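Try this one yourself first.
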């Protein structure tokens, strides 16, 4: 699994976007998790797949909704040939003006989460129908862009967030939790960038921890918490998936590719490749 940051550029004056996505084998990347600086509410129109977030796995089907805040790495895998989604993203500033304390209440579903909170809102849940209806109305406004459409979009987004507040708000939680996790994600992002540049070399936990300005013990614990795998497993997966790509696109031998990807023991490479890919590596002409 690889962890990357999405960098969709939202308009500064109206930091909001909504679009339809059709996921299939060609454009899906089940071995990659991503996170982003904006908030996301996604609605499944058709198909079935699995979403992974915060160490949890959610099976998503038609009518289900899933929400992510701006510090939650998440990924998915298809369970059918295609999955049709409506994806809605917006910056916190779209809701909460810097000078308006009242508007910040709308962000509570993304910050202050009760014990009953789950990222997935199933199609069978009472608020699901109203949220889907709101998303469809927002998408129609976004496409038609009639006079006053930004106000109509924001009004519908606020309505959806109010429904989430009623269902999931927990006044005992503090926004400081989100702030702390967001800062830690930024620190972890530096380590991930370092790993991406050096994973084919000899790379240690101490090296990655230093890139994030963390102690090795704290970095190891936090890395596992965020990615749900250990640092060493993360590096191994990067190496294996890079090797798989080289086997597919080059004429180099398995041994050459193994060494190039940071595996010094060919037997160990075969074992790990089969574990993560599901089959042993093969020469192109074999």
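Now uncover the answer:
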């Amino acid at each position: 699994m690889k962890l990357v940051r999405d960098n969709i550029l939202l308009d500064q004056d109206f930091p909001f976007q909504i679009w339809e996505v059709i996921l299939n084998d060609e454009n899906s990347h089940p071995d990659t998790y991503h996170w982003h600086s904006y908030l996301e509410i996604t609605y499944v129109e058709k198909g079935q797949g699995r979403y992974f977030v915060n160490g949890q796995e959610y099976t998503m089907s038609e009518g289900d909704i899933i929400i992510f805040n701006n510090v939650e790495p998440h990924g998915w895998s298809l369970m059918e040939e295609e999955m049709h989604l409506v994806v809605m993203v917006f910056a916190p500033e779209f809701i909460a003006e810097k000078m308006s304390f009242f508007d910040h209440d709308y962000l509570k579903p993304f910050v202050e989460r009760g014990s009953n909170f789950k990222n997935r809102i199933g199609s069978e849940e009472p608020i699901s129908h109203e949220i889907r209806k709101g998303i469809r109305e927002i998408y129609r406004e976004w496409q038609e862009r009639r006079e006053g459409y930004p106000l109509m979009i924001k009004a519908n987004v606020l309505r959806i967030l109010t429904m989430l507040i009623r269902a999931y708000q927990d006044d005992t939680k503090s926004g400081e939790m989100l702030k702390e996790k967001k800062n830690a994600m930024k620190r972890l992002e530096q380590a991930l960038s370092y790993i991406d540049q050096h994973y084919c070399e000899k790379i240690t936990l101490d090296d990655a921890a230093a890139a994030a300005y963390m102690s090795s013990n704290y970095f190891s614990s936090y890395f596992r918490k965020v990615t749900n795998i250990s640092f060493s497993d993360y590096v191994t997966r990067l190496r294996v998936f890079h090797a798989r790509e080289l086997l597919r696109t080059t004429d180099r031998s398995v041994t050459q590719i193994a060494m190039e990807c940071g595996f010094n023991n060919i037997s160990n490479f075969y074992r790990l490749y089969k574990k993560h890919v599901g089959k042993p590596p093969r020469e192109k002409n074999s």
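Discussion: Residues 176-277 form a domain with the Arc Repressor Mutant, subunit A fold (CATH 1.10.10.60). The longest strand covers residues 16-23.
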